[in-house]
């Protein structure tokens, strides 16, 4: 029986391993983490992350061929294939601070693998890492190898939070990069056989190590760039009377462009896009390519601009001040169907409004009060005004808001600022609201 161990039981490690376990009943999968509360949660009825369909998948195989444990060393020592899915945040200090990936967690996982291994291992990069990381990992492992053969593979994860299970069941592609040596090819084949249990062969792409590592950064940079491109257009639409939804539809009909990822919004968030673009920028700079670095930096600049443009629009519409005014924020996670608030644009919006002394209430059924407190404190927010936090209640997510009742209870004029272009603006204007939608004329 093949044994898989995954180091890191987070948003990636948990769901990816649960799907491997459910699709490959003959493979034993153990997910390990240094965080006891996280492992306890994976072993409980209240999983540590919210993801549609995840509960059912975990329940189907937990205790059979899927296990969660804090006994990291034991399970690493016993595994044939080790996935490393630890966090790789942006460095906050030292060389490359603010841009480079912090590989501290990766390095300590690699050193631990070298310390405890007694048999040959395939070590799989599941985390998003800078191109050439496999070379560094190889050095760490082979310097301490004790005759053990280590093969490093890059198998980046392309799932999107909110649709992780769907993405893992039906991936557009699985990418595996390995060394072009006989042992390297054998390792690639072994991993391919795991995915071949449910992914059609034509969707499993094999490349060299560096192409696989770079493809993940490139994919996130391209996705984020599309959002910044449409958001840049939304500003021009507002200035000219064009409607960004009409523009998106018109350009998306071009098969070379395609319709996906063309919705204007308050900006992208999440733990990956900004971090991975900064990582790419740093790699370009280190490789003497400042023009390429500047090109990608602009994607983040437009995203920052879009967030501040939104806050400014709220404040300027409400007669240039929100001081003492009650503002309700509906939704705090970085997108729908997730409770993840890492780098959510809502933090910048709240910060902007609180900075102008608004009285802010926040409601998100998937986000806890603690999380919001921590996110805003983490961003060094100065709490000098009351802030009302609604406790999470997942059942409320399905309820339709009674906008007539909301309107009746609001001070007039009553405003709605739609950061995702999701409300029915026409209907709400019929009730009497002043509605701002991103990239649209005020009466559209
Ligand atoms: P996460 O923070 O949710 O999970 C990482 C886990 O690793 C944590 O639980 C942490 O305790 C654990 N960990 C750290 N060091 C460890 C060690 N030495 N031993 C055991 N456990 C250790 O992060 P995530 O969102 O799952 O992301 C993981 C990686 O996957 C990152 O590189 C990220 O860029 C990448 N990625 C994330 C997504 C996403 O949507 N979140 C998608 C694709 C790729």
From TrEMBL:
Active-site residues per Swiss-Prot or TrEMBL entry: 272 (nucleophile)
Gene3D superfamilies listed in its UniProt record: Cytochrome c1, transmembrane anchor, C-terminal, NAD(P)-binding Rossmann-like Domain
Domain of life assignment: Eukaryota
Pathway in which the depicted protein is active: Nucleotide-sugar biosynthesis; UDP-alpha-D-glucuronate biosynthesis; UDP-alpha-D-glucuronate from UDP-alpha-D-glucose: step 1/1
Pfam families: UDPG_MGDP_dh, UDPG_MGDP_dh_C, UDPG_MGDP_dh_N
Catalytic reaction(s) noted: UDP-alpha-D-glucose + 2 NAD(+) + H2O = UDP-alpha-D-glucuronate + 2 NADH + 3 H(+)
The protein, known as: UDP-glucose 6-dehydrogenase
Homology family: Belongs to the UDP-glucose/GDP-mannose dehydrogenase family.
GO terms, biological process: glycosaminoglycan biosynthetic process
Keywords (A to Z) from UniProt: NAD, Oxidoreductase, Phosphoprotein
Residues that, per the record, bind NAD(+): 8-13, 33, 38, 86-90, 127-128, 161, 272-275, 342
Example of a GO cellular component annotation carried by this entry: nucleus
Domain spans labelled UDP-glucose/GDP-mannose dehydrogenase C-terminal: 328-425
GO MF entries: NAD binding; UDP-glucose 6-dehydrogenase activity
Presence of keyword NAD: yes
E.C. designation(s): 1.1.1.22
Task of the protein: Involved in the biosynthesis of UDP-glucuronic acid (UDP-GlcA), providing nucleotide sugars for cell-wall polymers.
Annotated signal sequence range: none
